[in-house]
Specification:
Layout (H helix, E strand, L loop, with lengths): L1 H15 L35 H101 L10 H17 L1
Length: 180
Amino acid sequence: MKKLATLIILLTLSCTGFAWPWNGKPLSRPSPKPAPKPVAAVVVTAAPSQNAVNDARAVVRELNGELKIAKNENIKLKNNLDQANSDLKNSFVLIEQLNKDITSLKEWGVVQQAEAQKWLEKYTNAIKRYHRLKWIAAIIAGAVGVLLGLQIMSFVPPPYSLLVPIGGAGLFATLVWVFL
């Protein structure tokens, strides 16, 4: 019992990470990260332009170009929005048509189920009638077998003579039952 308890303790310690030789961790501590060294930054300043009007005109030209690009993008976005709205309207029309088709399909399914139920009832009634007529035919064939057995009974010795009408009835009834 002591060996079993010792084995269980060793297995739990080795699985939990308390057993440092088996968990794959290095024995030594990692060295600290080196500290970053400061770098002297050189700041370059641009000399002020002599012609501020030309700079302003260049800025206005850039802004005009960006404005034209923004207008073109706005026109494209409006076209895409109009297209999306028309697609949305078409999808609503298609959804309404689909809902109409679904309801008509449901109604058709209900009608088909009612017809199938009606035909199933007719079929079960026909099967019942068939089996009833089959029994009647088997009984009539058995009666014919008895009459034929009574005719042949005189040719059979007395202890077996009663079995001939019974056997004839059974034979004829069975034949009619199997072949109908």
